[in-house]
Amino acid sequence: MVIETNKDIEGSKRRRYKRVFYSAEDRMIGFFVFPGDDQEILVAHIMNISVGGLHFTIKRNELISLKIGDRLILTKLMGNSPLQIVSDIEVEIKWVLDYQLMKHVGFGCEFRNLSDMMRTQLSNFVESGLGIGSTPMQ
User: CATH class for domain 2-136?
Assistant: First the structure.
């Protein structure tokens, strides 16, 4: 896991929050459901997370119809991280990274209606750089 600060990336004026990046070894998995349909579960690899949102990927051969503006509910996180979801979190897809040569499709999501408790928990998690093998980027 790696922490990135705003000054670490090109175009940092776009980024409002620090992020925690996850490697394949971290095995950070998110479980999502669709609003109003808790029967279909989307399992995705979490690539990074911040107070503002997250980036997840799914395998191209498991691709379902998701587009910008769609909303999902993050119900659970599993992986090599102490961050625990204490309540469901609504996310809205803000961008899609879909290159035909890549095996995975990426989705950038913004948290919607985040509770104060969850916002504080996420902020503390990112600021502290918690996690096995976490390395703050300078």
Answer: mainly beta
